[in-house]
Write a structure and sequence with these properties.
Layout (H helix, E strand, L loop, with lengths): L4 E3 L13 E3 L15 E9 L3 E8 L4 E12 L5 E11 L1 H13 L22 E8 L3 E7 L5 H5 L6 H16 L2 H10 L4 E5 L2 E5 L1
Antiparallel strand pairs: 1-6, 2-6, 3-4, 3-7, 4-5, 5-6, 5-9, 7-8, 9-10
Protein name: DUF4412 domain-containing protein
């Protein structure tokens, strides 16, 4: 697994060496806005509302990427107060490698679950979204419980090829840095308190 580099943001109530930032409820991920003058293409993979991988190729053959984690901080009545964010810089050579591999695996041409026969969608659980942007088009495709076979086996449905393709894309990323492990590490470093991510509410300390 390749090392990642942390970007730290100053905040008002936590020490900066934790690598968290506090933001109000509005566009907390601060993603890159595509600009054809600067950018060749942008790839994003978002797991619900708590984890985003963003990979950017610039027109000058420069590459940048970030892995961002987010949880919402709750008060004792479990009302959302603000967000805690960790943003990690991905080494440029890793971004370049991933964008090459993902592009060759048809990242930009994924079909959304709504467009796929026998693609199962649930009301709870985790949704993974793949988004690509370039000068020609924007494409987005979302899948519910992407890495689980359970609901397909339970309903005696063959897993669609597009789901298997999306899983392969996630595996490519996990080969460089494991998304689950990175998020668990983020959660383990949170201060005491109540938090929410996706549909999960957790209490720490």
């Amino acid at each position: 697994m390749k090392p990642l580099f942390f970007l730290f943001f100053t905040i008002s109530f936590l020490s900066t060496n934790l690598g968290f930032s506090q933001q109000k409820i509005s566009s907390p991920f601060n993603l890159t806005e595509f600009d054809s003058i600067q950018h060749q293409r942008i790839y994003r993979i978002q797991v619900d509302g708590y984890q985003v991988v963003e990979l950017v190729e610039f027109n000058n053959n420069k590459f940048e990427g970030t892995l961002t984690h987010l949880v919402w901080r709750l008060n004792r009545k479990e009302i959302t107060k603000d967000s805690l964010i960790q943003k990690i810089a991905i080494p440029h050579h890793t971004v370049k490698k991933l964008m090459h591999e993902l592009g060759n695996a048809d990242f930009e041409y994924l079909s959304d679950c709504d467009e796929i026969n026998n693609c199962i969608i649930g009301l709870d659980g985790t949704t993974t979204t793949f988004q690509s942007e370039n000068v020609k088009k924007v494409n987005a495709a979302s899948y519910w419980e992407l890495e689980s076979d359970y609901y397909y086996h339970q309903n005696n449905i063959e897993i669609p090829d597009e789901i298997l393709k999306a899983r392969k894309l996630i595996s490519m990323i996990n080969n460089e840095f494991n998304l689950d492990d990175q998020f668990k590490s983020f959660l383990n470093r949170l201060p005491k308190g109540r938090y929410r991510y996706g549909m999960v509410i957790m209490k720490k300390g």
